[in-house]
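[PROTEIN RECORD]
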Amino acid sequence: MALRIATRGSTLALTQAGLVAEMLGGAELVEASSDGEPGDKSRFVRGVERALLAGEAEVGVHSAKDLPGELPEGLEIVAVPTREDPADVWIGAGASLADAPEGARVGTASLRRRAQLLAARPDLRVEELHGNVDTRLRKLAEGELDAIVLAAAGLRRLGRAAEIGFALPVEVMVPAPGQGALALQVRSGDAETAAAVTAIGDAIALAELTAERAAVAPLGASCATPIGVHARVAGEQLAIEAFVGLPDGSEWLRDSFEADAADPAAAGAALAQRLLAVGAGELLERAEDDALRLMSAMRPKGTAE
């Protein structure tokens, strides 16, 4: 009997789930509904996890950057396929961030991207931008914005890599933890499914994701905290770096170091402790307050909380 894969119904989610189905030698895709307020990334996850817990599917495919730090009881991540490019990319006016026009209107829904763009270029006008990849590209094409910032991974998986203007280097834009990675989730105790899924996993991608998630957990990250974490395994070494800052780019912290790749969770936890020791906790509390005010100010009048 073929495995059933729970996925969201967006074009990108279905494409990603289809890639996993091919790796597994064929599987049925089960579309799971999402719920929650716009901007609440956990809604992308809940429907898939409900389908798994209800026995409607055996495997859940997630964009790893959407996964909360804590997983529901009864579910676990067992594998990560080979990771796609984790970089953020610029589409629009300019051949580099330094070359972008003065005061350019840049669209993104990510506080992490907002904070790092404004840290590098305080003159930019960063505007709220939601919707799927096609919607965002259309708004750029119609002249509502001068540029947008998206994940390279989604564009590449959708066959839209030609749209990319340039990649933002990690020194300027630390990616979201898990960006470019797919997390494959199964029910705890389902050894047969876990074995099938583990067989298509990539040990390096899993180690990188493990380090990134371990760094985020002690920092108390949420959708209202601008945090970037990027890990890269090279041989026996794991290099990891992070950014935390205020949404307006006025204050931030960065840190990076190398550790033994054999214990990625310890590397991530160590990075978090280094950041906390120099004030990241207080900075993120302020960032969350600022982000909530920002989101409230941008919410159209009459919109429910």
